[in-house]
Automatic annotation (TrEMBL), chain A:
This is Amino acid/amide ABC transporter membrane protein 1, HAAT family. The keyword Membrane applies. It holds the Pfam family BPD_transp_2. It is found in: Cell membrane. GO terms for molecular function: L-isoleucine transmembrane transporter activity; L-leucine transmembrane transporter activity; L-phenylalanine transmembrane transporter activity; L-valine transmembrane transporter activity. It comes from Desulforamulus aeronauticus DSM 10349. One of its GO terms (cellular component) is plasma membrane. It comes from the Bacteria. The chain crosses the membrane at residues 12-35, 42-59, 95-116, 136-160, 189-208, 228-257, 269-288.
UniProtKB/TrEMBL annotation, chain B:
CDD domains: TM_PBP1_LivM_like. The lineage of its organism: Bacteria, Bacillati, Bacillota, Clostridia, Eubacteriales. Coiled coil: none annotated. Its main location: membrane. The keyword Phosphoprotein does not apply. This is Amino acid/amide ABC transporter membrane protein 2, HAAT family. Pfam families: BPD_transp_2. PANTHER family: HIGH-AFFINITY BRANCHED-CHAIN AMINO ACID TRANSPORT PROTEIN BRAE, HIGH-AFFINITY BRANCHED-CHAIN AMINO ACID TRANSPORT SYSTEM PERMEASE. It is found in: Cell membrane. GO terms for cellular component: plasma membrane. The chain crosses the membrane at residues 36-55, 62-82, 102-123, 135-154, 174-191, 221-242, 254-282, 294-323. GO terms for molecular function: branched-chain amino acid transmembrane transporter activity. It comes from the Bacteria. Keywords: Cell membrane, Membrane, Transmembrane, Transmembrane helix.
């Protein structure tokens, strides 16, 4: 029972982290129909900026986190401007190659600038402490991560569904050209999408670094891939879908490791196996819409 | 008989002789380190050409090449290692009995590696090729990772994360370049056959190709399986070149390097893949100096590990952003072009019979 509760708590925490990152993928995919491979590396960038803010510049942790989020968001927007925008009318394969190129560039710049050796991420005392509840004890993060995620999810959902920017976003994701005919500034909408998505990735990256306090230049790769899978699972382009997919994936992973330890070597393969099944049997995901390609 | 045909045939013969001569002298006079680089280049030529078949000619964005290489490398390694060294290397858990005593010659083992990789390609392609573009990319990437994870965990077959050592070494340029040239020739024949035209039709417009009566799925599967075959072959050669394999070797980095080669050379040009394969591999080795400390007139600049990959990612971005067709576009090397430049007239066009 204790193990069960403990695992459930861990699952919720990891699941909400995945959900947070998956939203960034789903938003970008919804608008540009592009897997933003660089999204995964934004986690790493945010982690490192926060790390240097605290350890080198001795900033208070909250201020350093804010700076990390702002800079990462800026980076996300610039990536779109430099590497994706010029290719908007090019074949889709070109944009994908460009995305992979950016991702590789960021990872290797990371290795060049800060070295491949993992660094241990500082855990501020005000943020991370042990909570004892009867027989189970857990880190405060197990509670903080889902709360932060929930708040951000509500904010994003509100923005997409109720504000004018959100309406424009939905219009652009439906139909690029028609939206621009309706006097929607497509470029601005795309930039806003990257801004929001990248900020969420930054928050996700910081929370991830707090939860697993070892950061290295390739730390974003696996969580990134898994979160993309989560987004596909929930139905890419759909924000509630991304949340659902993130939770299922996080929970599934934690339960797999806790209750079938002999399979834990296959932990990272688990997500891909799920992805392949989803793509085969319901390629639109759980909450996705069916789109038929027309000539 | 057209005299131009004769000229071309002579030129081709000359080129073959010339390359044999170059190989002969390279084998005799280059240091073993340089020969190794040239061998590596041959492997990347095979990889580039095979991935180009899948991505450049058939338009399927598959990122699973490293996984197929992994399969090929392991198959050939397990088949060719001597039973004695297997006993030594599998000290954690012994290898399962049927594999413990196999001891094949190198050549059939390499071909077998390709066949097994092709079989994996067929199995994976069957479900995955229903997907397109980004979905296919992420699914094949996933398969590549899954293969790697399975290899890490099936210790009684692959020795797990410890990897395999003492794989019979091949040093001769003839074998690597022989395989490379054979690969290019086979792929060229395939691309110029009716199958190849179907591949290009699918790449250009899948729906239109289907409307013209092309069985899209069958052709995609063929292209994917052939691509996997040559990736497995190249993986096996890689194993014999460095004489050891382990699962971490076949990370996504490999696929990235191959992607760089085909983008640089031109998506849809075998000639481009050959040129870029050699250039990228050689410059990769040449650029090693940027990662080592340099002593410049008494000023010591520390080496920066990872710098090469930064340079290459930037290069990839530059090419894809500003010069998308790459070196060759979809053009191929042919004698007609050269003869035209040299002013050798075409008879038929002049109307002389």
């Amino acid at each position: 029972m204790e193990l069960y509760l403990q695992t459930l708590a861990n699952g919720i925490s990891l699941g909400s982290l995945y959900a947070l990152i998956a939203i960034g993928y789903t938003m970008v995919y919804g608008i540009l129909r592009l897997i933003n491979f660089a999204h995964a590396d934004l986690l790493m960038v945010a982690g490192y900026i926060a790390f240097y803010g605290i350890m080198v510049f001795a900033l208070p942790w909250w201020f350093s986190f804010l700076i990390a989020i702002a800079l990462t968001a800026l980076l996300g927007v610039s990536i779109e401007k430099i590497a994706y925008r010029p290719l908007r009318n090019a074949p889709r394969i070109s944009v994908l190659i460009s995305a992979i190129g950016v991702s590789f560039l960021l990872e290797n710049l990371g290795i060049v600038a800060i070295g491949a050796r993992p660094k241990s991420f500082p855990r501020p005392e005000e943020l991370v402490w042990n909570i004892k509840l009867g027989d189970i004890s857990f880190l405060s993060l197990t509670v903080i991560i889902p709360i932060v995620t929930l708040l951000l999810l509500v904010a994003v959902t509100y923005m997409v569904n109720k504000t004018k920017t959100g309406t424009a976003m939905r219009a652009v994701s439906r139909d690029f050209e028609t939206a621009s005919l309706m006097a929607v500034d497509v470029n601005k909408v795309v930039s806003t999408t990257f801004l929001v998505g990248s900020s969420l990735a930054a928050v996700g990256g910081i929370l991830y670094s707090l939860q697993y306090p070892q950061i290295d230049p390739l730390m974003g790769v696996f969580p990134g891939l898994k979160c993309f899978i989560a987004a596909v699972m929930g139905g890419i382009g759909s924000i509630p879908g991304a949340m659902l997919g993130g939770f299922i994936l996080g929970m599934g992973e934690v339960f797999l490791v806790a209750f079938m330890p002999e399979l834990s070597g296959y932990r990272d393969a688990f997500a891909f196996v799920i992805l392949i099944f989803i793509l085969l049997f319901k390629p639109t995901g759980i909450l996705g819409e069916n789109v038929v390609e027309k000539v | 008989m057209d005299s131009r045909q004769n000229i071309k045939r002579l030129l081709t013969l000359g080129l073959i002789l010339l390359s044999c001569l170059v190989l002969f002298f390279a084998q005799g006079f280059l240091s073993s380190f340089n020969i190794r680089i040239l061998n590596l280049a041959a492997i990347f030529v095979i990889l580039g050409a095979s991935m180009n078949l899948v991505l450049g000619f058939t338009g399927m964005f598959s990122l699973g090449h490293a996984g197929f290489m992994c399969v090929g490398a392991y198959v050939s390694a397990i088949l060719t290692m001597s039973p004695a060294s297997k006993e030594l290397i599998y000290y954690m858990e012994p290898i399962i009995p049927p594999l413990a005593n196999v001891h094949w010659p190198v050549f059939p083992a390499i071909v077998m590696a390709g066949v097994v990789a092709a079989f994996f390609g067929f199995l994976i392609g069957f479900p995955a090729l229903r997907l397109r573009d980004d979905y296919l990319a992420i699914a094949t990437l996933g398969f590549g990772e899954i293969i790697r994870i399975i290899v890490t965990n099936t210790i009684t077959i692959t020795n797990g994360s410890l990897g395999l050592k003492d794989i019979p070494s091949i040093k001769s340029l003839w074998i690597y370049w022989g395989f490379a040239i054979a690969t290019i020739w086979i792929l060229k024949q395939l691309i110029n056959s009716s199958w190849g035209y179907a591949f290009k039709a699918i790449r250009d417009n899948e729906i239109a190709a289907e409307a013209m009566g092309i069985d899209v799925f069958k052709h995609k599967l063929l292209s994917f399986t052939v691509g996997a075959f040559f990736a497995g072959l190249a993986g096996a050669l890689m194993g014999h070149l460095i004489t050891s394999v382990d699962p971490t070797m076949f990370r996504f980095l490999f696929t990235f390097q191959i992607l760089l080669i085909i983008v640089l050379g031109g998506l849809g040009s075998l000639t481009g893949s050959v040129i870029a394969g050699v250039v990228v591999t050689v410059s990769m080795e040449f650029l090693r100096f940027v990662e080592q400390p340099i002593n410049l007139f008494g000023l010591i600049i520390p080496g920066i590990p990872g710098m090469r990959m930064v340079i290459f990612s930037l290069l990839l971005l530059m090419v894809i952003l500003f010069y998308r067709q790459g070196l060759m576009g979809t053009r191929e090397f042919n004698w007609d072009w050269i003869l035209d430049k040299l002013g050798v007239a075409r008879r038929k066009e002049r109307g002389v019979a």
